[in-house]
Write a structure and sequence with these properties.
Helix content: 55-70%
Oligomer: single chain
Strand content: 5-15%
Structural class: alpha+beta
Order of helices and strands: HHHHEHEHEHHEHHHHHHHEE
Number of helices: 15
CATH superfamily of the largest domain: Beta Polymerase, domain 2
CATH architecture of the largest domain: 2-Layer Sandwich
Shape: globular
Number of domains: 2
CATH topology of the largest domain: Beta Polymerase, domain 2
Distance between the termini: 73 Å
Radius of gyration: 24 Å
Largest sheet: 4 strands, mixed
């Protein structure tokens, strides 16, 4: 992966240099970025076809988008007299923020602003528009929001989907100090407060999804994202760990004895395998696809070079692996949520006992008199 990133950066410096120099027409700039994107995405697909891991491919695509967005921002700022004086942070959110983008996944971007989006100076408003229009012209499916730090915090408090999306926020390019200010406020006002409520919401989400899919991974046509043991289970682990323990690194959970090293290995292996399956679904259908239909099971098993000669045997072997990985993820997610629930109940009980002790002492002694 490190070598790929090095090659990507070198190719970008050489290929995208004309865009930064400002000599290209709008049409020439669009064509330049399209050529660069097509070349690099082809390289990533070849790596997938060669058997690269699911996370390696998803991270490579996120890194590619980072490079393009960073170049577009730099070129847009260079084209303006006041470019260096326009404070703005381009922030990846959602799956893109986690640094994992499957081949046809949408790109979610936050334009983080120093003041309310309704009070932007015209140069900053034009900068945002120029970047968005260029991303669309190049061919990206972009979900975007333009918000100040205060607006981000307010949205996160009001809507859980916004909150979890911002929990995965990652700076792509732009004003580092502005992004760090956002992180401090978001952690203080959205993560440290209301932890019990957040946990309950995540636990209910997990329970409702598992119920919808009959509490089993053994579905005939599972959904690689939403079904039991799918990617959403993994995301819930990270979100709850972030709020409860201040980390999204499974190594920290091992160090704190929340999970064992073998559990971590099984979770990470499942996460990588599911991403590899999802990558193949996207490449084959040339669009975002999460439903692993019977027909697609044969497609994936063939693409993954299972050795069985008969297509039914190939599919059976592949689905055994799929069920094994998703069962691990499903079981570990459920177990972790139960562990966090027990920890939360223990804290609540301990706090209640302390409250009762305080009440008892208050009744027993006051103003030098002892209550009987």
């Amino acid at each position: 992966m490190q070598q790929h990133l090095k090659n990507l950066e070198e190719h970008a410096r050489e290929s995208l240099k004309p865009a930064l120099e400002g000599h290209l027409s709008p049409a020439e700039r669009i064509a330049l970025y399209k050529r660069f994107l097509k070349t690099e995405e082809h390289r990533i697909q070849l790596q997938h076809r060669s058997g690269a891991g699911g996370l390696e491919i998803a991270r490579a695509r996120a890194a590619l988008i980072d490079v393009i967005i960073s170049s577009i921002l730099e070129a847009s700022l260079n084209a303006r007299k006041e470019g260096g004086m326009l404070p703005i942070s381009l922030v990846a959110t959602g799956g893109y923020g986690r640094g994992t983008l499957n081949p046809s996944s949408d790109i979610d971007i936050l334009f983080l602003l120093p003041r309310a989006s309704t009070k932007l100076p015209e140069p900053l408003r034009e900068l945002v528009q120029d970047i968005l229009y260029l991303l669309w012209d190049v061919g990206f499916k972009v979900g975007h929001a333009c918000r100040s730090i205060t607006e981000c915090v307010e949205q996160a408090k009001a809507d859980q989907e916004n909150k979890t999306s911002l929990m995965d926020a990652r700076l792509i390019a732009g004003d580092k100090q502005l992004f760090e200010q956002f992180q401090v406020r978001f952690d203080k006002e959205c993560l440290r407060k209301g932890q019990s409520e957040f946990f309950e919401i995540r636990r209910n989400d997990l329970r409702d999804r598992h119920k919808k899919y009959s509490y089993t991974v053994f579905l005939q046509e599972p959904n690689v994202k939403e079904s039991c043991g799918g990617l959403r289970d993994y995301h819930n682990i990270l979100w709850v760990a972030r709020v409860k323990l201040g980390t999204t690194d499974l190594a920290d959970l091992v160090e704190n004895r929340v999970i064992t090293a073998s559990t971590r290995n099984e979770i990470e292996a499942a996460h990588d395998f599911i991403h590899r399956v999802r990558n193949e679904l996207h490449y084959h259908n040339q669009k975002a696809t999460d439903q692993l239909t019977l027909q697609l099971q044969g497609v994936v098993s063939t693409a993954f070079d299972y050795p069985q000669k008969d297509i039914l045997r190939k599919t059976e072997a592949f689905m055994r692996d799929y069920y094994r990985h998703t069962r691990h993820l499903y079981q570990h997610t459920t177990s972790l949520m139960e562990t966090f629930q027990l920890e939360q109940d223990t804290r609540a009980e301990s706090g209640f006992r302390s409250f009762l002790t305080f009440r008892k002492k208050s009744r027993e002694e006051f103003d030098g008199f002892i209550a009987r």
